[in-house]
Amino acid sequence: MADFEYVSKREATEQTGPKPPLDLSHHLSRVTAARKESAIKKFYQYFQIPGIGNLAGGLPNASLFPFDTLEAQIAQPERWTPTPNDPNDPYKDLSQKLEKTSLKNGRDVTSSTHITVPHTSAVKNPMQKIDITSALQYGTAQGYPPLFSFLRQFTREVLHPNVPYAGGPEINLTCGSTDGMAKTLEAFTDVWSEERDWVRERPGMLCEEFAYMNALQAAAPRGVQIVPVAIDLEGMLPYGPGGLEDVLENWDDSKGKRPHLMYTVTIGQNPTSGTLSVKRRKELYEICSKYDVIIIEDDPYWYLQFPSAVGKEAEARNLPTPAPQPIHQFAKKSGYAFIDSLVPSYLNVDYDGRVIRLDTFSKTVAPGCRVGWITAQPAIIERILRITECSTQQPSGFVQSMLSELIMGPQPALAVAEFSKKSKKDQLAFTGWETAGWVRWLAGLRGNYENRMNRMCTQLEEGRFLLKQKTPNRTADADWAVISKTKMFSFDWPRAGMFVWVHMHYDTHPLAGVVPGPKMSELLWVFLTTVPYLVLASPGAVFSPTEEIRAEKGWQYFRLCFAAVDEEEVEKSSKRFAEGIKAFWLIKDKKEMEDIEPEINQDNLAQVADLGMGMAC
Ligand SMILES: Cc1ncc(COP(=O)(O)O)c(C=O)c1O
């Protein structure tokens, strides 16, 4: 054998460039490792050959579908007014005024426009062809080609242009993040049973100390051990007691396998609204890399980052406005000031290829779409594709074609010209004609939710303290009013998301020590649903991943959602929430408190403003 090798120029440069993602197949579940490509689905690519006489596929005939077209009136991307990316921008007032103008190029931006999915489109390229004949037919498990190719390009070039591993990530469409999570669990966990399996084989999943329970409830019945990590305002703590390193380094094998999965919501965390900085991401990622943990980043609230929260919170509390923090300095920009101003995903620090990101249209279009996508290194996406082929196959073609029309829309001549200049390979991954409009829609949504957040927090801020006038002790002070200030609750103005996480200070209640805190919390929750307060908050217990957290801390919190009710109602019901708490703090008699009807009054329920948004969603 020769003691030297010829290396092609391409290979040599590849070795010095970004490294390929790690092989994480040792984490695959037995079932997922054993999956083979669907024998039927692999023929689908041949269906696209122009002029082919397809006698192979067991497809119903498209001319017999009872839908001739799908049509809808839709919003224009400029319907909602964006808020400034940088609240310190001296020109923000002017730019806001300009954004508010209701006529864009002569169009009234509040009016609707019309989209149609035709029965049969003459377009040849399947990446651009949006019609009933293709959308309502069986299709590839990646997703409907036009929507798949738009999202793939959007993900790789606009949302996450800085993924550090060679070749970048791939995507697969899902029926929303809940489905994405279920598929990820299927891919990376074997079902474990106490009666049948060794404890040392029990899989584990890390999560925030307060968490979105639906995701955990998908894991727990598979025997997955849920392992909470301590959090602060941002999110998970990398170091210190209860932090990620502490949990993993001091793992006790007699409790099960050291967790190999981490479920995390890093922007506008549900329920705490925590928003994780890039610095913190890097620290947590290093620890995950050291202990070989796969990161599942569930990020439905990514676009709802609120730059005004820090300054408004400081202003409301008479504190100096903190200096603006530089967000990130990654090499490539998305080309959209709004996207570039957002704290980026874990994918940007994913050198190993251990991040699986879940996106969804639930918060940007509507939850009923049941469409989202998973982003991860290609080998992981390939396994997710295999799972999809034999489970959901694809999200509904009705929704996929409507979303394709909504986002990609009529294609302007300039974009068509650009498209035709691309290589055949790039054409497969490029159809983002209306990307600018989609980004503008997202920016407008952020503006709308940011205003709601500010309205809710302003009301809560005013109601945090119980002020009482007391008689001065000394006659010399008779001309002075003595005001006592009792802090009933505290909260941070959310930096992102849809929720305010309210910490109740039951220890300042006059009956503290007489009525136990957990009981008080239960009674307050019911009290708030009574006339005249009529508000429903989500109790912290609903977001407690373990019995210990529920018993120790869960009862001290409420989650309020500023998204679900009308904007006017956000203010009114937040005010009633604060007034209800004040009235509760004025109860001095144990009997009076215990007399609060322990059951929610069904007659009131219809009038109650649901500040929990379906409680645990
Ligand atoms: C953190 C988080 N993940 C996922 C979901 C559900 O997403 P989807 O509708 O895409 O399944 C929610 C909904 O409230 C959520 O808060």
TrEMBL record:
UniProt keyword S-adenosyl-L-methionine, yes or no: no
Q: Which domain of life is it from?
A: Eukaryota
Sequence ranges of Basic and acidic residues compositional bias: 1-13
**InterPro entries in alphabetical order:** Aminotransferase_I/II_large, Class-I_PLP-dep_aminotransf, PyrdxlP-dep_Trfase, PyrdxlP-dep_Trfase_major
Annotated region Disordered: where?
1-25
Stated family: Belongs to the class-I pyridoxal-phosphate-dependent aminotransferase family.
Protein name according to UniProt: Aminotransferase class I/classII large domain-containing protein
